TrEMBL record:
It comes from Aspergillus hiratsukae. Keywords: NADP, Oxidoreductase. Residues 6-234 form the NmrA-like domain. SUPFAM superfamilies: NAD(P)-binding Rossmann-fold domains. This is NmrA-like domain-containing protein. GO terms for molecular function: oxidoreductase activity. InterPro entries: NAD(P)-bd_dom_sf, NmrA-like, NmrA/Isoflavone_reductase-like, PCBER-like. CDD domains: PCBER_SDR_a. Pfam families: NmrA (PF05368).
Amino acid sequence: MSSPIKKVIVVGAGGHLGPHIVSAFDADHHFAVSILSRHSSKCTFPSHIPVHRVMDNYDETELVKIFTRQDAVICTIATQAIHLQKAIINAAVKAGVRHFVPSEFGHDTRNEQAAQMLPQFFAAKRQIVEYLESKERDGLKWTAFVTGPFFEIAVSNFLGFDVERRHATILDRGTNRWSATTLSTIGLAVKNAMLHPETTSNKYLFIESFNVSQRDILASLEDVTGAKWDVTYHDGEEEKRLALEKLAKGNCSGIPVLMRYITCVKGYGGNYMGSEENANKLLSLPGESLCEVLARLTKHE
């Protein structure tokens, strides 16, 4: 058995997900966590956690020096910078890093129907995992996480729920089920996967906090707010058509609509637990209350 993973560095720790991953590792005495951040970044980090600065183009020489003696690299960089992970992976291999977690978090990028609709969100991520597979012969192991939407962000961002106005936009009847995961649970999942790399390496891990429908969320929101919400029902296919027309004209406002569509409509990978092995138990993830999470969200709105 190989020695345990101890030294972990998080790339992109200033985004939505990164702080939760850093926090999970920081809270576990098995790990020593540090952060890789670009020189131009204005993000601030906990003062007790070491921060390594690198040029914005992720210069390989700098990266190799920083990655030397690190056991694992966890990457959470933004979607528009996904392609930069190849340089980070190359440096990790040269530095002798043992494990890499790519910025794969979100929908199942292997779903062909969804990939055809939003290639800018799917193709680049899938290519990175394929690149990692090619590095297995160099001794670099990897783990990719399929989490569904980041629940707290997606609820009011693109899943159709306006907490301030108490208004829900429901696709079709709103009864199709799909998976989503909270940010803290994703952080815990990544950390726990590094505790047992012998069982989590070189594979996709599918996790979820909730397997729900839009109607489930609406019912819970009405419960925690104590109010009857206004609801607008939209035809999913018509929404998709209009959103694709907008994208074809360079109007990016169609993207959130398509994200809602591929999450909530059958066949686009949103309900991945129907065909994949659930890794929640493997990663010792806690059960979560939909109402409790939504109650916290509504308090912050």
